[in-house]
């Protein structure tokens, strides 16, 4: 027996195992991984809404990178897919992750066979993208956000790689009810009637799920699903870090799986588990380590089960399924413009959380929970009933394209894509997060004032103006290079094949119909160019916001209306046609088993020129006479003395800026339960019911951390207290010191 196998012995071992049991039967090597990527929880602008005032001020639940690796055998083809609780993938993140993988594994994982996809939560710290437009509101590049993401992706792939074992993969599909509506239905109606008539809805409701089963134990090790709905259940005013509805679905799925496994093992050994269960819940299955020099870390389990909820053709799909209404009158907004008597800011989408007046959750938290649960419940259905086993080759194709002036053949004519540009509809925002006053979705003209502002920044060339028609050019980002590029020109596209499933990695947000056209074109090509490997049963999924980010892709017809999605379709009216043309080339090469010879121009690495205008915290002290961790506001016990389900006990501590140490894979707070004269952690800041909130006191000099607990339905009666963990530096060059503090005990009945 060896404890620490070397890579070589591991490979030799795997070859032997593989030859004995799995690979002979057409199965795969499978590994999964998951790592905390929660970035700075104070003072950093959130990525998504472009709202300058939306800066982090605590954590609702943690962000994670979740990965799976599949391989045909130790030496065979493989790919890695990573799903991030982030707004989107970033070119610079991808570049740095690939560099780190190269130094660990040589050429095993590279740009061709690694896909990094974002869930599109709008509640994660920003500043990790390299093009100017995407770091305006974060005041430039934020290294701490960036590093947290890069490290988490690397670690999740390392875990997946190191846990590779023979196993089987199953696929299943089904409809998720009421988790998304079209937020630009008027643009959808521009698509041809015959085309629309082929589909029952103006959004895709299908979820595709992969289930991974370990070949040795027969136990499930993970499931990844793809389904399109925006990560905008949390609003543009939210300041708590959150994975939004997809992160919530993943949290619920992994917790459900833990509790199912625990129930089945529990019933086999003993029925005496309730206290143990509490202990395990807090720590994810491992005994939790006590306060260490690194501060408190509740060790999450080393990913026995990973549940990923991935994004798809999400462009025009809103999770605010009650529709958009005017905030002043309560009436429906203008259908074509999504405005209320001309004001775009008054038209706001409503999530399912709104109508439940008796709810104890704020609307947006409840909406996140409900939309998360709808995806989670469908995923359980698909997971438990998955029958169809995947067999066949693993393969991939990847190419970079310069979208500035791609030639596209359309009905015998040659048309071109344009340098990137945004129209006025972009500034109007969407019903999920309205934009700037003075713009409306569908605008094809810009007033004199904004024209002057635009020309001050950069007057678009006449070529650009003509090329982008009917979009009016508000920001010619593809022609703006000062102080460095405002928008990407080079984009990657990628196809990953796992037997009869094909994943299309797209670097943006395709609208519903754009996604359908792409999937269909790829499928037709695979079937017509292939030798029977592909047929009508081949499953094609779009992985949105993958590898880099370039905003939206609307259809040619939707582009005519210039709503938000069209105004944000960067490369002009033929953007989608260009994608379809180039993906068909990849599909043909895959179907015929040909390699891609011309891999296209590499995207730039702009890390050395990034502007960084956001200051790091420069030292914290507690107020005179106090220590970090001291209570500022203790528990206020309710009448009757004890809290009940749904109550929200809270306590506030003197604390330091949470940016000194992100407590990765740890927690800023726990709810502890008294058990046999010991305090045992029961919930941490990754739990949906525990909130960590951070702010400055009235003097703006001292930090305050509040822990607030929504007493959950499944709670055990008993004695509880809050414990806060943090770290501080006196000055930027001081060593980091860790501290902790506890509230008074309180009863829950
Ligand atoms: C596990 O057992 C608990 C207590 O019996 C029950 O409430 C819970 O629903 C079970 N979980 C699953 C997934 O069956
Ligand atoms: C349950 O645990 C208690 C102590 O915690 C022990 O005395 C008792 O025997 C256990 N019951 C069962 C059924 O294992
Ligand atoms: C929306 O615009 C279309 C044409 O672009 C027009 O036919 C339709 O009447 C408009 N609908 C409403 C409700 O204004
Ligand atoms: C993309 O193409 C444009 C137009 O040909 C060219 O000016 C630009 O340099 C190219 N961009 C890169 C990064 O190669
Ligand atoms: C802070 O200001 C608020 C409102 O101005 C006031 O109610 C509160 O008492 C102040 N708190 C402290 C600690 O001074």
TrEMBL record:
Residues 28-581 form the Neutral/alkaline non-lysosomal ceramidase N-terminal domain. Zn(2+) binds at residues 120, 230, 509, 552. One of its GO terms (cellular component) is membrane. Residues 583-748 form the Neutral/alkaline non-lysosomal ceramidase C-terminal domain. Pfam families: Ceramidase_alk (PF04734), Ceramidse_alk_C (PF17048). One of its GO terms (biological process) is long-chain fatty acid biosynthetic process. Binds 1 zinc ion per subunit. It is an enzyme of class 3 (hydrolase). Keywords: Endoplasmic reticulum, Glycoprotein, Golgi apparatus, Hydrolase, Lipid metabolism, Metal-binding, Secreted, Signal, Sphingolipid metabolism, Zinc. Its cofactor is Zn(2+). The active site is at 318 (nucleophile). Residues 262-286 are annotated as: Disordered. It is found in: Endoplasmic reticulum; Golgi apparatus; Secreted. This is Neutral ceramidase. It comes from Actinidia chinensis var. chinensis.
């Amino acid at each position: 027996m060896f404890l620490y196998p070397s890579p070589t012995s591991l490979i030799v071992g795997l070859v032997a195992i593989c030859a004995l049991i799995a690979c002979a039967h057409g199965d795969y090597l499978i590994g999964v991984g998951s790592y905390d990527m929660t970035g700075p929880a104070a003072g950093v602008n959130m990525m998504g809404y472009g709202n300058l005032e939306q800066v982090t001020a605590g954590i609702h639940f943690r962000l994670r990178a979740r990965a799976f690796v599949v391989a045909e055998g130790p030496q065979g083809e493989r790919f890695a897919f990573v799903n991030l609780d982030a707004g989107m993938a970033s070119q610079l993140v991808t570049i740095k992750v690939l560099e780190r993988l190269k130094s660990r594994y040589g050429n095993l994982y590279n740009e061709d066979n690694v896909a990094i996809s974002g869930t599109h939560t709008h509640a994660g710290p920003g500043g990790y993208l390299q093009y100017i437009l995407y770091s305006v509101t974060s005041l430039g590049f934020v290294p701490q956000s960036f590093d947290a993401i890069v490290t988490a992706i690397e670690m999740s792939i390392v875990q997946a790689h190191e846990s590779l074992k023979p196993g089987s993969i199953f696929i299943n599909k089904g409809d998720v009810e009421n988790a998304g509506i079209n937020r630009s239905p008027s643009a959808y109606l521009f698509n041809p009637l015959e085309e629309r008539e082929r589909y029952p809805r103006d959004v895709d409701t299908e979820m595709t799920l992969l289930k991974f089963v370990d070949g040795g134990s027969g136990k499930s090790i993970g499931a990844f699903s793809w389904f399109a709905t925006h990560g905008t259940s949390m609003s543009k005013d939210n300041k708590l870090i959150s994975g939004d509805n997809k992160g919530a679905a993943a949290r619920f799925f992994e917790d459900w799986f833990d509790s199912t496994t625990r129930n089945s093992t529990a019933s086999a050994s003993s029925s005496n588990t309730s206290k143990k269960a509490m202990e395990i819940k807090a720590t994810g299955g491992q005994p939790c380590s006590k306060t260490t020099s690194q501060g408190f870390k509740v060790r999450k389990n080393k990913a026995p089960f990973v549940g990923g909820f991935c994004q798809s053709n999400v462009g025009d799909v809103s999770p605010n399924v009650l529709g958009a209404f005017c905030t002043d009158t309560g009436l429906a907004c203008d259908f074509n413009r999504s405005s209320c008597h001309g004001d775009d800011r008054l038209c706001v989408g409503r999530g399912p959380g709104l109508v439940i007046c008796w709810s104890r959750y704020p609307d947006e938290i409840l909406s996140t929970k409900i939309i998360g649960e709808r995806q989670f419940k469908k995923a359980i259905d698909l997971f438990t009933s998955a029958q169809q086993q995947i067999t066949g080759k693993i393969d991939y194709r990847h190419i970079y394209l310069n979208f500035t002036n791609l030639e596209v053949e359309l009905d015998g004519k040659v048309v071109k894509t344009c340098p990137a540009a945004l129209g006025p509809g972009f500034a109007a925002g969407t019903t999920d997060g309205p934009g700037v006053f003075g713009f409306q979705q569908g605008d094809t003209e810009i007033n004199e004032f904004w024209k002057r502002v635009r020309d001050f920044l950069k007057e678009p060339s006449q070529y650009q103006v003509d090329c982008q028609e009917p979009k009016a050019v508000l920001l010619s980002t593809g022609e703006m290079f000062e102080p460095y590029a405002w928008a990407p020109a080079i984009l990657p596209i990628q196809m990953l094949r796992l037997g009869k499933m094909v994943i299309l990695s797209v670097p943006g947000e395709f609208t519903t119909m754009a996604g359908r056209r792409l999937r269909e074109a790829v499928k037709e090509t695979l079937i017509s160019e292939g030798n029977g490997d592909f047929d009508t049963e081949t499953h094609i999924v779009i992985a949105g916001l993958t590898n880099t980010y370039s905003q939206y892709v609307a259809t040619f017809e939707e582009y005519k209306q210039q709503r938000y999605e069209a105004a944000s379709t960067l490369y002009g009216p033929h953007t989608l046609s260009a994608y379809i043309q180039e993906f068909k080339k990849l599909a043909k090469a895959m179907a015929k088993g040909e390699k891609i010879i011309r891999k296209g121009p590499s995207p730039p690495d702009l890390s050395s020129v990034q502007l960084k205008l956001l200051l790091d915290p420069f030292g914290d002290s507690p107020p005179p006479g106090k220590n970090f961790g001291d209570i500022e506001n203790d528990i206020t016990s309710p009448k009757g003395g004890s809290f009940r389900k749904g109550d929200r006990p809270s306590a506030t501590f003197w604390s330091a800026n949470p940016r000194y140490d992100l407590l990765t894979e740890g927690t800023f707070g726990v709810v502890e339960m008294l058990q046999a004269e010991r305090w045992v952690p029961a919930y941490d800041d990754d739990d949906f019911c525990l909130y960590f909130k951070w702010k400055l006191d009235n003097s703006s000099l001292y930090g305050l951390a509040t822990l607030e607990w929504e007493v959950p339905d499944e709670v055990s009666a008993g004695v509880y207290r809050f414990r806060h963990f943090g770290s501080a530096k006196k000055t930027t060059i001081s060593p980091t010191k860790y501290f902790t503090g506890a509230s008074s005990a309180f009863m829950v009945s």
